[in-house]
Amino acid sequence: MIHWPLLSLITFVPMIGVFFILIARGDEAVVVRNARFIALWTSLAVLALSVLLWVYFDPNTAAFQFVERANWITLGGFTISYHMGIDGISLFFILLSTLLTFLSILSSWVVIRVQVREYMIAFLVLETFMVGIFCSLDFILFYVFFEGVLIPMFVIIGVWGGENRIYSAFKFFLYTLLGSVLMLLAILAIYLQTVSTDIEFALNHANLFSFGLQKWLWLAFFASFAIKVPMWPVHTWLPDAHVEAPTAGSVILAGILLKLGGYGFVRFSLPMLPLASHFFTPLIFTLSVIAVIYTSLVALAQTDMKKLIAYSSIAHMGFVTMGIFAVTAASLQGAIIQMLSHGFVSAALFLCVGVLYDRLHTHEIARFGGLVERMPAYAFVFMVFTLAAIGLPGTSGFVGEFLILLGTFKVSTLECVLAATALFLAPAYMLYLYRRVIFGTLTRVDLRNILDLDLREKAIFAPLLALTLWMGLYPTSFVRPIQVSANHIIEQVTAAGNGTGPRQASLQ
Amino acid sequence: MPHFAFPEISPAIPEMVLAGLAMVLLLFGAFRGERSTRLITWLAVAGLVAVFILGLGEGGPPHFGFYGMFVSDTFARFMNSLVLIGSAITILIGLHYDEDERIARFEFPVLVMLSTTGMMVMISANDLIILYVGLELQNLALYIAAGFNRDSARSSEAGLKYFVLGALSSGILLYGLSLVYGFADTTAFADLARLFAGPAPVSPGVIVGLAFIIAGFAFKVSAVPFHMWVPDVYEGAPTPVAAFFAVAPKLAAFALFVRVLIEPFGPLAGEWRQIIFFLSVASMIFGAVAAIAQHNIKRLMAYSSIGHVGYALIGLTAGTAAGIRGVLIYLAMYLVMTLGAWTVILCMRRQGRMLEEISDLSGLSQTHPGLALALAIFMFALTGLPPTAGFFAKLYIFLAAIDAKLIGLAIFGVVTSVVGAFYYFRIVKVMYFDEPAGAFDQPFTFELQSVLIVTAIITLFFFLLPGPVTGGAEAAAASLFVR
Asked: In A, which residues are within 8 Å of B421 by CB distance?
């Protein structure tokens, strides 16, 4: 263990970068250059710090590690503390956030030409908020970060987005804000019940919440997380946001922001509200299966690459929610692995689309075809991630999906079978996309001189490629830190379900 | 002949000092003429600040004066401080405007001082009579201020409208007060509270009177359905006056509202809670929905202030110490955010003309990045987004609401704040996403710049050091419940 406040450092070092970018003075061109480099080095430093977390993480305990605690706001018994800590569930999300931020900044190196300073600031602020969400162990602190994320994302879509960016930015913002304000009320209700805004305390005292209260709290949390995931039928903001967002914005959106919903379900809904979670499982299952089948079919019909990948994200996240609420060791671990895998893969796919967009300024599928002739390296990279999205054994996508189906099968065979239809729907839309873009004959004039990946782009894809294969071939290194924490959550839920929980709850 | 002891006047010393200063400045100005406007303005600010500092030194248990008709307690001191800050800053940020529009007259700061005196008196009122005296002192000064730009038809219209509706509401209030006096036979808050808490059933006449009193107060704080005057007056009045209206008188009226309902009428909470509940819900909904269609930023701020009154009323509906604490924190944060936003509006001037359209802010992030950032911070705060001060203001309000089992009200509150987010973010959108419409006249005066920086920093970094405000609000709210 290390004794300096590693989590706070990871969370707030980006702010130091923001400060330096803000005070950068001089010629416009120099400022822009400096802003890019400051952002890059800051995010790299944060990435390095977060790798330290993994190195020093103790995978043998479900307790929170790297804990920091200080009183923040005290008011008439209402104490909000600055309480940070991580367990096996949050660990990899932090790493994912820092990695994707770094890659996003790298990927925007030449594309973003207007208001570069503000762009870099937005991404660094976003990083602080994202990491903060996964580290927070106090509800108010969590909420501050959770909602804070919306501001930089709103700006990123609105300023550097496509044609219809204003509409999409507002839709994204208002949709997700509506969900989170309901969660705020739930958080306040939890405080009034437990007289504490401490997440750890609430997790360990789930029996303080009666079944009736649990149902309301669960619904309020559900409103927030279901929109973030997003689950059918509140998913409509996602395709719009993705299509209009700049490439790096899509990367963060798909890679991290969608995971906030899943993380919230695992962190709060399951262990803290186990009875309600059990009660609402059929609802989640139904919505998940609809999401998987319906959005897969919708993805088949898309003519825009980004929209297609956005819909496939919804389908993949449908798997995740199903795995979470099946509450078996396999499915829960599978859900977390699937979220991480989707974090790499969808981010990489959006980056792939971004590569084409940088060259031709469109993501319409029909504009492409036969790219393999001109861009062999690109065709290879795109193929690996397409296969990973399909869930081919040997890639990260397989591990998660397999574990989820395995776990869910024990709980509900029907759900499992229905969701498994995605196993042939996903190849259908992904390979169809791949064929139309990469294969075929190269007929369009402007594609004749299209350039293959340059060194910077290869450098962006390399880590994602390595991680996808690593997780697919040797998932143990990822599963091990997750395992204990995931099992701990299962224990908490089953303990509540076995009668110890309900009996105590009914005394309330 | 009965012997009267000389009344205890020490609790009212700040008010007396302020009133005396106002008189001195008035005389000074009358003799020196318009040349002394700038000097008098600064002296008025200094006077308000001096009284503010004078108030900081006080503390301890409630201090009664004028035979118990006047009280200086923690609540009064807290609200007085807010009102004094609001008045001082509005005088400051209005200075250059008045000079540019050639309406700079030394009477303006004097009027503000006099109305501030009235506000402080009404905040400290412990008797229905004093309440009314303070209120009218405040109002008379405000009527003149609203029509201060004598040569402008809009300003005169605003002044007249404000006068007619203000007088009407004062009449309604006075009628309510006389009904209560007629049925309860006393005007002292303490006696009223004792009477209503007693075993005897409360006469329906008192309830009717209470309804009239609430209607009168709702006019003053501009809660729906008594809000109609607000957008017109804000739009018509000179901008610094509108900024003043948006802050100090509203805070003072709110303080009075809270004190009257909690102290004398506290035992009748069951009777008034549903009225306040309705006012709160209606204000939140109306404030959020009506603002969407506005093009004029002053009107937008008017509707926004109506919405914020609705949120603050949630805390009053709860009627608990936690609720009042929430109200006070909310008002303090509202003061900072609103002053900041109005300061930006006062910076909107191109080729010597004041601008009031939202579209005039287009591309502000490119022409004036600092100004745009500040206004964005205020808009985030008015929306209630963390980590700004506006979030913490709403947090304590909703906390109190849920604690008092007002879940429905809390849900209304958060949903309308999402609706409100739309129009606040529309301003951010105009500033950041649209093409620049041209730069404003430079440079902004020193006063505007410093007020802008201070309010933006407080709004954004309130979470680092919330203690003074939250602690003060806690103590102030508690002081209403001890007696």
From this structure: 173-174, 177
